[in-house]
Structure formats: structure tokens, C-alpha cells
Write a structure and sequence with these properties.
About 85% of the residues lie in helices and about 0% in strands. By secondary structure, it is mainly α.
């Protein structure tokens, strides 16, 4: 089984240097390598997009949790304040 470009290279998001290295390898290795490169790059791009979407969802969930927690504290503080003022009268 042949080793793919994504197995040999760092699996981080594509950078200019990464693309330059891949294009040099493709130029040296020929047309089959070009097809392999396109396939591997497509997989890498799909994985990167999926990770970005997952990260976005995690951030959105964190924001919702923060808003809900802050709302609970504000409502509790208002309730306790009103209740405390009623006892003072």
C-alpha cells in the first residue's frame, strides 16, 4: 500500500509552505502523484472544514451556556434583593 501525502506531511491546515512542498513532490513524482495530491488535499480540506464547524459549534454552545448562567445569577440576585427589601419594611 502506498503512503499518501497526508500521512507523510503535517496534518495541520494547508499553509503556503505545505502547498509548495506538495507541488514540488508532485512535479518530481508525475501525474499519478498529482491525482493522489488532489485526492489527499480534498480529504484534508474536508477534515479541516469539519473541524472548523465543530469548533464553531463548541464556541456557540459556550456562549449559550454563559448567557444562561449569567441570566440565572441576575434573576436570583433580583429576587433576593426584592425579598430582602420586603423584610426591611
Amino acid at each position: 500500500m502506498t503512503e499518501t501525502l497526508t500521512n507523510r506531511l503535517d496534518p495541520h491546515p494547508p499553509t503556503f509552505l505545505w502547498l509548495k512542498i506538495c507541488f514540488v513532490r508532485v512535479w518530481v513524482m508525475g501525474n499519478d502523484a498529482l491525482n493522489t495530491f488532489y485526492q489527499d488535499y480534498s480529504e484534508l480540506q474536508a477534515n479541516y472544514t469539519a473541524l472548523l464547524q465543530e469548533h464553531e459549534q463548541n464556541i456557540r454552545s459556550l456562549i449559550y451556556i454563559t448567557i444562561a448562567t449569567a441570566t440565572i445569577f441576575i434573576v436570583a440576585a433580583a429576587y433576593m434583593s426584592i425579598h430582602a427589601h420586603k423584610k426591611l419594611r
